Amino acid sequence: MGNRSNFDGTTNYVHVLPGYTISVALYCKGEAAYGIIYDLVAKELFVAERGKGAKLNGEAMCVSEHRYLSESLVSTGLPADNTSARYHGLEDYVKITPVTRDIRILGSADLQYAYVAAGRLDAVWIWGVNIWDIAGGRLIVEEAGGSVYQLDGSEVRFEFPHFTCTNGKIDKEWKAIFTSIHGF
Fold first, then answer.
1. Residue-wise over 110-129: b if at least 16 C-beta within 10 A, else e?
2. Cα(50)–Cα(38) distance, rounded to whole angstroms?
3. 14 pLDDT exceeds 70?
4. What is the mean pLDDT of residues 149-161?
5. What is the C-alpha separation between 132 and 46, in angstroms, rounded?
6. Do 132 and 10 contact (CB within 8 A), yes or no?
7. Which of 15-19, 23-27, 48-52, 157-161 has the lowest mean pLDDT?
8. What is the dihedral of CA 142, 146, 152, 153, to 10 degrees?
9. Could you give the CA distance from residue 173 to residue 82 in angstroms, rounded to a whole number?
10. Which of 22, 42, 74, 146 could form a disulfide with 141 if both were Cys (CB 3.0 to 4.6 A apart)?
């Protein structure tokens, strides 16, 4: 049956559940120049241009000010198929829940990234996500003041599909929790 992992909100769309988006990223010479995410249901347009900040419906936006995991609302996604990525996501969910304010699963990676940029979420982690599912959101998070990196804490590598983003203020604790769970 092929790869059923989808983090773009397709499953939400098929079930007429809000939380699907149109997401576009323009890369020039290997670097994101523009990121656009449009939430069709909420009619929210998240946009970023490299070096010019991030906007929500034309207004400047920035990440939250939360500095501790205990006050942070975080989010994740789980692949539809029964893979090791799903196992790792569930394992993380169980271990991360007690150290955060709470966790949400929304169904669209880019929408979750947009919510970090808008200060609605403090972090997102997803195992086994496709790069096109976060390409637009990556720049939007960075331009709003947040961080995007691999779950092991290293720089984003497109061939390693395990990404996280944060508000940039909880990174030390966030990286430590993944190190304690997975030994990175």
1. bbbbbbbbbbebbbbbbbbb
2. 18
3. yes
4. 88
5. 16
6. no
7. 157-161
8. 90
9. 29
10. 146
User: In this structure, are strands 73-77 and 102-105 parallel, antiparallel, or unpaired?
Assistant: parallel
Query: Tell me, what's the pLDDT at 159?
Result: 79
- Helix/strand/coil (H, E, C) string of 111-166? HHHHHHHCCCCCEEEEECCCHHHCHHHHHHHHHCCCEEEECCCCCCCCCCCEEEEE
What distance in Å separates the CA atoms of residue 184 and residue 181, rounded to the nearest whole number?
8
The two three-digit tokens of residue 112, written as one number: 């979750």
Q: Assign residue 89 a region: left if phi > 0, alpha if psi is -120 to 50, beta otherwise?
A: alpha
- What token pair was written down for 46? 């998240």
Q: What is the mean pLDDT of residues 20-27?
A: 93
Q: What integer is the mean pLDDT of 56-75? A: 98
The 3-state secondary structure of 14-52 reads HCCCCCCEEEEEEEECCEEEEEEEEECCCCEEEEEECCC
Q: What is the CA radius of gyration of the chain?
A: 15
Q: What is the pTM of this model?
A: 0.94
